[in-house]
Amino acid sequence: MMPARGNEAAPPATFQPGTGNAFAFAAFNALSFQMVLGSPMILYAKSLGASSFTLGLIAGMLPLLVVLQIPAAGFVDRLGCKRFVVAGWGARSVFIALLVFVPLDVLPLGDGGRLAAVLVLLFLFNAVRGVSSCGWLPWISGVVPPPLRGRYLATEAGVVNLASIAAFALAALVLGEGAGPGRFSALFAFSLLMAVASVAALARIPGAPALPPAALRARPGFREMWRLRAFRRVLITNAWASLAAGGVVTFVVAFLRGRLEMPERSVLLLTSLMFVGGALNQFLLRRALDRFGSKPVMGAAFCLWVVAMALWAGLAGGLLPAGAALAAALMVAIGLANSLMNLANVRLAMVVIPDLGRSYYFAFFSVVGSLVLGLAPVLWGAFLDLFASSRREFGGFELNAHSALFAIMAALFVAALASSRALEEPDAENLDRLVGTALSRSRIRYWLRFWFRSTPRP
What we know:
This protein is mainly α. 74% of the residues lie in helices and 1% in strands. It has helices at residues 21-37, 39-47, 52-64, 69-79, 81-101, 111-132, 136-143, 149-175, 181-203, 213-217, 222-227, 229-245, 248-258, 264-279, 281-284, 288-292, 294-316, 324-352, 358-386, 401-420, 431-440, 444-454; strands spanning 392-394, 397-399. Strands 1-2 form a two-stranded antiparallel sheet. The longest helix is centred in the C-terminal third of the chain and has 29 residues, at 324-352. The termini are far apart. The relative contact order is 0.13.
């Protein structure tokens, strides 16, 4: 007798043909934007005499201009996600092409004029990016089946981190000891080539299925989106996390360079270790994120953040020895914790956001986190300037501006961890089971077995 059709097992979910181009896009895009938004651009602006405020402005443009997703959300569904994003990424490449000529003597600009040109072009670059990125999450949510989203996000994160490591190595090789204008121009030209390659890969990703007419007409307002409890709780947790994480890398680098007086090359190499930590998620979360859900992974990320920032506070306060080995381990921990948090956060948003009006929901989700992420460094920078000369001893621990800041960040991650307990996610496992499974599959279980067997019982 043939089995009933309703009892037949559903076929396993698979990626659509061509989805692999998304990983090629992620690699080329990372190689491109690390040159024009990362350390090479900061070093070039610094060579032009940029002030700390100007450097902060360059660093904050990317997250702050994500606010442009709100007015852009109404056009995404009408034009189609793929068409919208490809057009935006193509327009971005134009501004990178113009950046190539800024360091050269094509125009009679002084350092002030070149710096002004850099700021204008970066503003336009980030503005176009802010608008066009509105279609990315709705697009990829429609292309990748729900059971495979965690695997996709973990693989994408691994690709981005590996490409970022390569970008840092190339930048260090090209700039060397003495970075002249021609070398910066060469890096920007490389960024342009990678941007063109990323657009080509982007165009080969399959398009998302067409939405029904009801979804196209749906335009939820802010109050309606806020009333969706599961979505609201994601926003609140995201805001706590963004406030804590905003500026961590900037002020850790400033601490290493200023307080510990590490040479710039050592600081750059230590910073690149964050991407090593982020790349570890390719091995840790390739299947675990889909199996256990986003909530326990996010909880584990916040726990790691708390420990890492508490250790940075101890290092800044003199409780821990100031050495390159400890700093390297903490940079890897920051990269791992940040990647865990971001992957779980995006996947959870994909789960709780409804299909009706999804472009508006994703835009609101991105804007809330990015605004806090962009404003946090300004707040923490003002805090450091205000208490720069304050120092007090407490039993071998020096409470100074940096140790206080890192302690505050650790406390904010505790608040984010508490907030994450209220998150809603269907079919998610709990954190205890996730940790138990991780330990049972690790060699540490042999040590734990020996410990419990040798421990006296009452």
